[in-house]
């Protein structure tokens, strides 16, 4: 179903081993690296994400999970290798506006605009970037606020909402751009258990609607039951790409086994 | 300084001379000259003021040689005789600098501070008429008079200034009015016999005048004789000098008798002359001009003519300048009560309203300019890495935050024309100069406010806006600036209020803002408490308005406060 990734780590990567970029995949990554000065944040990564696939990226802190998904909307530009999103090569010449209309993102700390009401948070970018009229943007915002279950909060300011409510607004704000790919960067890490349940159920709904999803999370319910694949990362490398049932029962690498043991303990 | 070194030592009474055109007379300022200009603010009469362009000497020499060869001295002489207009008035305008706080020589009689009157102004008008020139009066601080003359901002200075050898080292002087030094005390003070009787007492003089150095010579004698010296206090305007005596802070002040004749009427006999020391070198008021033998002769001739045809005598009568007007001093020491009438008439006068308007306009405009130029500076300074541009901006901020605002004003007004002659032209008004100085000064402070406000906006905001596909401009315009504005606004309004009051410094470069108006009015009437109070009311009214505005604007930022946001929503 998915091409064999290069799991050999330090082994030299030949063009054959990397293979060609996949035009059919939603996201196709080949030999992609990202450096911060001398520090290798992402080390020659290779994988494809098919249309409608739900991927969970797991790994310890500092393994490069967030950096990886941020290369897909070029908030963190990669330094070498190639990324293809919906058949378009991502590099210096990419139209960032178009890319970011297609790839939505939700952050751990919500990053709502505090000076705008909930509905204005959702309508700002569609009006500015997608040139929707105020009315079109508002109708769409109310539609998605309905979908995330907080239509009654539309006219409040972010500071008046709970963390869970704010994260729902952030999801609605991203959906208002009508993206084909959603990137979640630890969306539940700052939430209490009750709020987590609400946000995860929204993510489930989105998954059912067939939107391609990449999610950095430690949330087991989503990882186990919704994800099509788990990508396990450590020190900037991908160590495993497997379906969740395999990953959680028979992890291939010792590093993944240790990581799972730590997770289960909590 | 003569126009040409060949003329300075000439034995000819009227040496052959081709009057240089104003353009060829442009002197080139150097750093030394600029520095000198500052020294002169406080130590007038020291050092050479202008440095001449060497090229000019060569050109003058060539012209002279050419004239001698081709036509002979007599023809050149004949050409010169045709024009009796001094070089500084040849363009049809006679520009005169004056400090209108010395009645009856030069002072503001009415409510329009830009129109001084007095003996000096009448003399200037008569000269302008004689030279078929339009008279343009520039009122300014006393300390600014000689630097402005040096900077060619005016053709001559006429401001009741004593003719002194020290001053004639740098400028030419033409006497037009006799005067005598007087020591003045409160009306009930007994006369004294000599300056030595002032030993150990405090006297007030106007700063920038020569009185202080003259009294220091007395002090040398006193110290040598083992006596206490006279203590000197210096004040920027003549009216403040008189005030010190009226309120009893100092024993006496030093002034000129002509002024006293006028002041006695004004002060209703509250002061009296207690001594007229016989200083041989303090006997004439003089018109000062830049060194130019030809110009000096022409002005001298003009004054002689005005004296002979009775014009000056008529002026003296008009302004009560004669020893006959020295009245018997009456003991009219009625307690100074607050004159509510004067206070309210000042409060409602056009002069004060105009002054307040200029204060407000210069503060608003310069702060607006400061904000506009400081935003890109703040964004650059907040950027990553170290660039040359950043180093330059950091230096800019340090220099303009470090230097006193008053010094920056004086630099731009008096020193800049020495580097760039374009700044001595008429378009460069005191208003414009103040605007430039205060904009630059304020921007250095505003950069810091903007920088900290921009840094205080959470980095996640930019990230989220980027992820939504907004352009750089949109990210700043719709996401970062509105949030930074809330943080920057209270310190910005704070700075503005401070700036509003800083504008009062511009009175030294003759901007007719609120405080300058107040001082001119005080010099006219001596009702200083009333006028100060009126000025205070204006300043407070303006400040309170902006404080009120600040409150209103802060209410708009309720999104930052959970309680306020809830209150607004409900």
Describe the structure.
- The complex is a heterodimer of chains A (266) and B (570).
- Chain A has a single domain (15-265), classed as P-loop containing nucleotide triphosphate hydrolases (Rossmann fold, 3-Layer(aba) Sandwich), CATH 3.40.50.300.
- In chain A, 37% of the residues lie in helices and 23% in strands.
- Chain A contains ten helices and ten strands.
- Chain A has helices at residues 15-18, 65-72, 96-102, 118-129, 134-147, 163-175, 193-208, 220-225, 244-249, 254-265; strands at 27-36, 39-49, 54-58, 80-85, 88-89, 103-106, 181-185, 212-216, 229-234, 237-242.
- In chain A, helix 4 (118-129) packs across helix 5 (134-147) and helix 4 (118-129) runs parallel beside helix 6.
- Chain A is globular, with a radius of gyration of 19 Å.
- Chain A starts with 14 loop residues before the first helix and ends with a helix.
- Helices cover 54% and strands 11% of the residues of chain B.
- The longest helix of chain B has 33 residues, at 350-382.
- Chain B is elongated and about 85 Å long.
- With 570 residues, chain B is of the alpha/beta class.
- In chain B, strands 4-1-5-12-6 form a five-stranded mixed beta sheet. In chain B, strands 9-8-10-7-11 form a five-stranded mixed beta sheet, with helices on both faces. In chain B, strands 2-3 form a two-stranded antiparallel ribbon.
- Chain B has three domains: 5-179 and 284-318, D-Maltodextrin-Binding Protein, domain 2 (3-Layer(aba) Sandwich), CATH 3.40.190.10; 181-282, 3-Layer(aba) Sandwich (D-Maltodextrin-Binding Protein, domain 2); 342-569, MetI-like fold (Orthogonal Bundle).
- Mean pLDDT of chain B is 80; it is low at 1-55, 60-82 and 324-335.
- Classes of the chains: A alpha/beta (266), B alpha/beta (570).
Summarize the structure.
The complex is a heterodimer of chains A (266) and B (570). Chain A has 266 residues and is of the alpha/beta class. Helices cover 37% and strands 23% of the residues of chain A.
């Amino acid at each position: 179903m998915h091409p064999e990734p290069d799991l050999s780590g330090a082994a030299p990567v030949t063009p054959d081993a990397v293979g060609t970029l996949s035009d059919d995949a939603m996201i196709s990554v080949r030999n992609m690296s990202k450096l911060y000065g001398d520090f290798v944040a992402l080390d020659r990564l290779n994988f494809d994400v098919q249309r409608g696939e739900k991927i969970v990226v797991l790994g310890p802190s500092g393994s490069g999970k967030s950096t990886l998904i941020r290369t897909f909307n070029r908030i963190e530009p990669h330094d070498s290798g190639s990324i293809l999103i919906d058949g378009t090569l991502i590099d210096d010449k990419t139209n960032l506006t178009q890319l970011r209309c297609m790839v939505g993102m939700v952050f751990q700390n919500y990053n709502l605009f505090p000076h705008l009401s909930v509905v204005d948070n959702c309508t700002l970018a569609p009006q500015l970037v997608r040139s929707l009229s105020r009315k079109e943007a508002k109708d769409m915002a109310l539609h998605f606020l309905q979908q995330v279950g907080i239509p009654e909060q539309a006219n409040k300011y972010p500071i008046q909402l709970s963390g869970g409510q704010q994260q729902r607004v952030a999801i609605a704000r991203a959906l208002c751009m009508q993206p084909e790919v959603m990137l979640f960067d630890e969306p539940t890490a700052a939430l209490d258990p009750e709020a987590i349940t609400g946000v995860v159920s929204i993510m489930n709904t989105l998954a059912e609607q067939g939107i391609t999803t990449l999610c950095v999370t430690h949330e087991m319910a989503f990882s186990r039951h919704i994800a099509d694949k788990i990508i396990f990362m450590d020190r900037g490398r991908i160590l495993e790409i497997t379906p969740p049932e395999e990953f959680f029962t028979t992890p291939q690498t010792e590093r993944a086994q240790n990581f799972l043991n730590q997770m289960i303990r909590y | 300084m003569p126009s040409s070194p060949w003329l300075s030592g000439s034995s000819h009474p009227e040496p052959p001379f081709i009057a240089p055109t104003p353009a060829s007379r442009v002197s080139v300022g150097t750093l030394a000259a600029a520095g000198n200009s500052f020294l002169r603010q406080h130590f007038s009469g020291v050092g050479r003021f202008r440095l001449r362009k060497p090229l000019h000497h060569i050109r003058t020499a060539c012209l002279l040689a050419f004239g001698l060869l081709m036509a002979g001295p007599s023809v050149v002489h004949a050409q010169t005789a045709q024009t009796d207009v001094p070089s500084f008035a040849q363009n049809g305008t006679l520009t005169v600098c004056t400090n209108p706080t010395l009645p009856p020589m030069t002072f503001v009689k009415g409510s329009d501070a830009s129109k001084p009157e007095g003996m000096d102004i009448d003399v200037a008008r008569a000269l302008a008429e004689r030279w078929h020139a339009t008279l343009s009066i520039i009122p300014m601080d006393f300390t600014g008079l000689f630097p402005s003359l040096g900077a060619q901002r005016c053709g001559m200075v006429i401001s009741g200034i004593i003719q002194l050898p020290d001053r004639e080292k740098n400028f030419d002087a033409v006497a037009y009015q006799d005067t005598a030094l007087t020591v003045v005390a409160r009306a009930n003070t007994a006369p004294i016999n000599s300056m030595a009787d002032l030993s150990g007492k405090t006297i007030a003089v106007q700063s920038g005048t020569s009185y202080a150095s003259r009294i220091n010579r007395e002090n040398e004698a006193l110290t040598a004789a083992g006596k206490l010296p006279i203590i000197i206090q210096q004040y920027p305007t003549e009216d403040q000098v008189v005030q010190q005596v009226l309120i009893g802070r100092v024993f006496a002040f030093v002034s000129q008798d002509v002024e006293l004749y006028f002041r006695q009427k004004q002060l209703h006999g509250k002061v009296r002359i207690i001594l007229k020391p016989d200083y041989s070198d303090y006997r004439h008021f003089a018109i000062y001009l830049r060194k130019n033998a030809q110009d000096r002769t022409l002005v001298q001739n003009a004054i002689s003519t005005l004296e002979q045809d009775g014009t000056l005598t008529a002026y003296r009568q008009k302004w009560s300048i004669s020893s006959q007007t020295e009245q018997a001093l009456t003991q009219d020491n009625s307690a100074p009560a607050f004159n509510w009438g004067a206070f309210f008439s000042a409060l409602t006068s056009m002069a004060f309203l105009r002054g307040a308007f200029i204060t407000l306009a210069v503060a608003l405009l310069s702060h607006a300019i400061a904000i506009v130029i400081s935003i890109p500076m703040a964004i650059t300074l907040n950027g990553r890495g170290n660039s040359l541009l950043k180093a330059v901006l950091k230096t800019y901020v340090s220099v303009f935050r470090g230097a006193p605002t008053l010094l920056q004003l004086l630099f731009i007004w008096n020193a800049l024309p020495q580097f760039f002659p374009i700044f001595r032209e008429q378009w460069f008004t005191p208003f414009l100069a103040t605007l430039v100085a205060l904009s630059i000064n304020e921007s250095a402070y505003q950069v810091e406010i903007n920088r900290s406000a921009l840094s205080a906006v959470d980095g996640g905001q930019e990230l989220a806006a980027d992820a939504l596909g907004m352009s750089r401009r949109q990210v700043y315009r719709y996401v970062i600036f509105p949030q930074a504005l809330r943080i920057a606004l209270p310190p910005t309004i704070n700075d503005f209020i401070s700036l509003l009051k800083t504008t009062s410094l511009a009175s030294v470069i003759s901007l007719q803002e609120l405080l300058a108006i107040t001082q001119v009015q005080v010099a006219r009437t001596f009702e200083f408490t009333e006028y100060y109070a009126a000025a205070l009311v204006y300043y407070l009214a303006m400040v309170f308005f902006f404080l009120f505005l600040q409150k209103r604007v802060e209410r708009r930022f309720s999104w930052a406060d959970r309680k306020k946001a809830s209150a607004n929503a409900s």
